[in-house]
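Follow-up to my post from last week.
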Amino acid sequence: MKVLISGGGTGGHIYPALALIRHLEKEHEAEFLYVGTEKGLEASIVPKAGIKFKSVHITGFRRKLSAENVKTVLRFLKAVKTARKYIEEFKPDIVIGTGGYVCGPVVYAASKAGVPTIIHEQNSVPGLTNKFLARYVDKIAVSFNEAENYFPKEKVVFTGNPRASEAAETKGSGGALKAVGLSNELPTVLIVGGSRGARPINEAVMSAFPSWDGQDFQVVYVTGEVHYEEIAADLKEKETEKLKAVPYIDDMPSLLKEVNLVVARAGATTLAELTALGLPSILVPSPYVTNNHQFKNAKALVDKGAAVLIEENSLNAESLTQAIQQGLTAENEQLMKKKALEAGVPESAALLTKEIKKLLN
Ligand SMILES: CC(=O)N[C@H]1[C@@H](OP(=O)(O)OP(=O)(O)OC[C@H]2O[C@@H](n3ccc(=O)[nH]c3=O)[C@H](O)[C@@H]2O)O[C@H](CO)[C@@H](O)[C@@H]1O
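User reply:
Got it. Predicted complex:
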């Protein structure tokens, strides 16, 4: 089987694609080609994962009318042409898009070439690209029931997010905390602002952490690559035995297996991992995303009792510290753990694979 996958920009679109590739590889003789952009995180993550990578040049549409959008249309048409060339050369049996604007021209070109197509939507509210592609593709796999209403009924199928399967199946390295310089003795909080980091979360952490000295928990603090230098300079000797800052974690599922509580943005792929593993969380949705979809992602978990919400405008040293202390009490930790597990879809990769097979038959 030959599979062309496209998706990117941020980790939330890339890791589901990689998880699906890993699952398909286990079950089938398969060859893969990943198409992304040179500027997205996929340009480094995908080749590192040993998967053949090619790129198209494309940018996202601005919401407001602008001359830049005219250029984007021209780039889109050019990217469709490039994608068509990749499709003619690789001859995929199926083309799968996992979101981010890069999969627009790729999946569109595939559909026009008569190749079977599936898009995977991670969020509770779909992004522009998947809404655009909905009319051209054969199947639309969603991860939240809330997303179903935005798409043609006959094409939609609920599969969850395949990264959940990868997280649930991981055995873990057993040394993820040790690798960042922490022990396995204390309750551990992971703080992470999505795949690119989040300045407001960083600001709250930097103002709160001096008061965490006497607490009986430790912290892995993932700043995001672009913020790391500045934070490392601010932290200097203040980094303690109980707080370690790192720019990025390559093997997140292994780390997740060794922590008790997660403070995070509410990116859909992160939520799929947390629920697959049954991890309690404090979610600070980004208000800067299309249709406020992170808030709706978070709400789906908070309403089930699987997570606690702090809106960004209420995030400060006090609210963060208090939420962490409460999240770590035995009773809350157990309850959120149970509710998170109930919300998880660890069988997602198999569900999506089933849909792929149906389409190929
Ligand atoms: C600003 C923005 O548009 N964000 C979107 C983007 O977020 P973003 O890329 O931040 O997405 P998620 O939080 O969903 O996923 C992040 C992924 O990166 C991994 N990770 C993160 C940090 C790290 O150090 N190492 C690592 O491997 C996580 O384990 C996870 O697999 O895609 C998500 C999924 O469509 C959306 O819900 C988000 O709203």
